[in-house]
Amino acid sequence: MTKFFFSLILLIAYANVAYANVSSELSVLRKSVFKIRTTSVAPDFRRPWKHFAAQSSYGSGFYIGDGKILTNAHVVSNQRFVTVQKDGDPTPQQARVLFAADDVDLALLTVEDPSYFKNLSKMQFGPLPKLLSPVECVGYPRGGEQISITEGVVSRISYRAYAHATYYEHLLVQVDSAINPGNSGGPVLQYGKVVGVAFQGFSDAQSTGYIIPVPVIQRFLADIKDGQYDGTPIDGLTTQDWALISPTARQFFGVPGQNSGSFISHVGHSSFLKDHLKMNDVLINLDNNEVGIDDKINWRGERVDFRVLIDLKLPGESLKASVVRDRKIMNLTIPVTKNPIHYESARKFERFPKFYTYGGLVFSTLSLNLLQSWGQRWFYDSPTPLRYIHTYAPLQPLPGIVEDVVVLLGRMPNAVNSYVQTPLYSIVKSVNNQPVTDLAKLKELISQSQDEYINIDYYYWETPSLLRKADADKAQADIVKTYQIHPEEFLGQEL
Amino acid sequence: MVKSYKKIVMMIVMVSGSLLASCQPSPTQGEQFCIKLIVSKRPLDFESPWLTLNENVENYYATLVAKNRVVTTADAVRDHALIEAQVFGSTSKTPVTVEWVDYEANLASIVLPDSFNKNRLVPISLFDETPRLPKLIKAKNIQETTEVFLTFLKAEVKQTDISQLSYTHLIFETAQKGHGTAEPIVEDGQLVGIAVSQNDSAVTAIPSSIISHFLEDDFTKEKYRGFGKLGVFGMSLSDPLKLQQLGLPEDTSGNLVTRVLANSSADGFLKENDIITEIAGKEVNKDGQVKDSRWGRLHFSAVLEQYYGGDKVEVSILRDKKSMEIEIPLKQFSSNQGIFHVVDSTGETNYRILGGLVLQELSLGFLKTFGDRWGNVAPLNLLYLYGNNLEFGYTSKRRIFLNKVFADAGNRGYEEIKYQLIKSVNNQPVSTLADIDIAIKNPKILDGKPYLTFEMDDGSGQIVIDHAKLAEIDERIRKNYNLP
Question: Which residues of A touch B416 (CB under 8 A)?
């Protein structure tokens, strides 16, 4: 089933927290939990060189040793200036973001002066908490002056999408109504050890909180050891729910037993599994865990989606999988590799959306952020070709498209483009009959063209755009100045 | 927009003050050309195609165009279970039968039986000029009709309300609301057109030229020739750059062909990048318009409205800078020739229920079951296909989709599958229900056991049913879910 994620979840940078009993040592917490203040500037995906007004927000973070403070990625996303402040310390200290892993909503900060971390207690990580076991959430709700601690119990362990990036699913621990989760980035403790990072709440279930559990945190910390964050492996698998519940289907596909088997209906082109698993394979075992007809495994005492095993892998590790293919059992050892370049289905947090302007035409790339500019009901209200291509990108609806789906975003009126009739949000297919595979290719085809004309064709037979190269080249400076387009373009390069 | 007759009557009561002031006694007093149609409808239910939606009664107008023949819209007669005709001032209702419907042109013809009291009825002749003082005829009360003065705005080639094809429409303006149920629009006692919809103050009508084309046709299945359509997409040549790029002088006029639909009239005659400069001797301007003596500038396809399917039209083109004359035999088209059924003229929806799987061919009617916002909220995979309905040209290449599954022990695990496109059955590609009927006769045999399999579009997976138990499952589901 293709997973859609409707973001009912709210990030909880300002969640309400009731005060409760304190069982952890307050003096230790005071030395290791920080208040984080972020000034952020979010880009406007409809006018990619523009930004919305700067905003201030608060979050929490905690010291994990080696001069590093762990927090949520969303606490520092689109940041321009970040400070951290200890409980009881009057002076906020400027901090620097070392890593921000948007897919798992985790970030690491540091401050330049190493002496700042003297006398701080490094917090220790514990295990995955058990259902019904007690936890304490620590943080600075609403950016309050004092540290806040609340109590509750673990109510569910599941595998689902994190609200920050809104697409990728990971292991998630739900804590119950007796406590509120504290504010984003704060530690969640059990018997004095960190079992998770508080990070999101539900808009329609007020006292339900979610925490990022330790296995996800530890995978993040291991991933960045080489100085680079690779991200969680994208399995790219589409499975058909309950396909193997019927004895008829089990006999047909030759799957032994009664309860095992996840039917793989598609393997995405950006998946590291694509050379190993095939459409119509039945996955029956993964790393010595029986995969059920419910797509779940028994794992650390809980029943969770088998994808958790893939999600926690690092590049260089491997997976052992047993599948039934053509009614025969096959045992496979699959190396986990870095994710290839692919269309990003999740929200992006780059400084600028990629864009390119030429002859007053503004081109950008399709992204969830762009679609979300149609509002909360973007899934229904954004143009059908765009939402279709976004939704079915893992199944590759546009042949040859790897990463960028190039979209005509705007026309800045100028004499060179006054006859351009192409409807906005049309998807670029080619320039002078040469296929446009990404935004850089569009720029290359236009800027290096020796032709007198630039003829841009679009998918779905939308009206082509025609410009005279000499005129458009000449008008560029004037257009950029008139409409205050700076930078003139952004193709993903370092700034 | 279909508005019920009752509502219209109520509105007249509400605005009667202004009406009385603006209406003069009808010149046809004592003689009428306009009758009422009371149409009992049973709309198709595309969600559960073995059922119909709740029956409802709608009122329309029909105009007497010959001794015993009235014309109304296809919209008026679609989905009807019973049509009754009534003259103003009479209380008797006479059942009538539809003689012929053209769902593309949105017109229908009804023959009045001998039993119908035609005493006061006089046929109206057609008026095919620019109207100066157009008046819309509608019910004043159950006794008589009244006239609403309109202002003629323009003629425009646009899509009809019920098909995907475009025809010339007349646009009028009036401050009054609630028109568009086939009311006749007249000038000097002649028929200018019949009203099909109203949007704010603009009333849209089918012009008499299209009505007479329809009426002069042969109303038999074998001989009806309908309207010919070219089947090309075009682009304006108003951009001087485009002409320069094509190496043509700036004063070149005509419409640039950007796409020729497969199997259309133009297929094999016109090519991409041809410039249509003249059609039937009329010059085509840079915006693809011709000059019409009655209506001013109109899209060149309006010229084709004088032709029948099978007629030939002279088209002058520029191809590779050379002028050419081509004679194109026009084919009659149906908007059902894409992958969707756009208009359902058969009065029934086809489906199959196999192993509890409800299978249907793609139809616009199904998308519209998602309500007024169907274009936003209908299933994305189906909506996307609808947006590319003519991707394959006029090939009538259908697609099958699985609407829903009736849960049963025989189809466990598939209960929640819905709105999925079916690629093949038993690995045999299917595009129509007839293909399915053939495919299910060839089950897959594995270890001596027969299976029925449905392969869904990439990413959606497969459905496997025990073929040996199919009859048993179908019978159980039929009883359990009260199916015919």
Answer: 241-242
H/E run at residue B382: helix B380-387
Which residue among A74, A164, A170, A266 is the active-site one?
A: A74
pTM of the model: 0.89
DSSP class of residue A13 equals: T
Which residues of chain B lie closer than 8 angstroms to A280, CB-CB?
462
Select from B239, B411, B464 the Cβ nearest to the Cβ of A466: B239
Size of interface A-B (CB pairs under 8 A): 103
Condensed to tens digits (0 to 9), the pLDDT of residues A154-203 reads 999 999 999 899 989 999 999 875 445 447 899 999 998 999 999 887 65
Is residue B158 classed as helix, strand or coil in its secondary structure?
strand
Q: What span, in angstroms and rounded, lies between the C-alpha atoms of A100 and B6?
A: 65
Rounded to an integer, what distance in angstroms lies between the CA atom of residue A257 and that of residue B334? 53
How far CA B81 is from CA of B52, B95, B98, B483, in Å, comes to 11, 11, 11, 21
CB contact under 8 A, B458 and A395: yes
Closest alpha carbon to A397 in A459, A461, A462: A459
Which residue carries 């139809």 as its tokens? Answer: B363
Q: Are B71 and B108 in contact (CB under 8 A)?
A: yes
Complex ipTM, two decimals? 0.89
Is A74 in the active site? yes
Are B279 and B315 spatial neighbours (Cβ–Cβ below 8 Å)? yes
A105 is catalytic: yes
- DSSP letter assigned to residue B303: G
Output A303-309 pairs: Cβ under 8 A, ≥24 positions apart. Answer: A304/A157, A304/A158, A304/A159, A304/A171, A305/A159, A305/A169, A306/A262, A307/A159, A307/A169, A307/A235, A307/A237, A308/A159, A308/A170, A308/A171
**A238-253: string of b/e by CB count within 10 Å (b at 16+)?**
bbbbbbbbbebbbbbb
Sole residue written with tokens 């951290």: A84
**Rounded average pLDDT over A105-133:** 92
Residue B17 has pLDDT above 70, yes or no: no
- Catalytic: which of A32, A57, A148, A184? A184
Q: Residue A488 corresponds to which amino acid?
A: E
Please tell me the distance in Å from B413's CA to the nearest CA on chain A: 5
**Across the interface, do A388 and B381 touch by the CB < 8 Å criterion?**
yes
A278 to chain B: closest CA residue: B459
DSSP string, A408-441: EEEE---GGGTT--PPTTPBEEEETTEE--SHHH
Q: Which of A105, A223, A235, A281 is catalytic?
A: A105
Burial of A374 (0-12, 13-18, 19+ CB in 10 A): middle
Q: pLDDT-based confidence at B89, cuts 50/70/90?
A: confident
Q: Please state, in angstroms and rounded to a whole number, the distance separating the CA atoms of residues A453 and A470.
A: 8
Tell me how far apart the alpha carbons of residues A336 and B402 are, in angstroms, rounded to a whole number.
37
Q: Is A269 a catalytic residue?
A: no
Tokens of B417: 């599958």
Q: What is the DSSP string of A73-116?
A: GGGSTTEEEEEEEETT-S--EEEEEEEEETTTTEEEEEES-GGG
Entry field: residues in chain B: 484
Measured between alpha carbons, how far is A245 from A254 in angstroms, rounded to an integer? 13
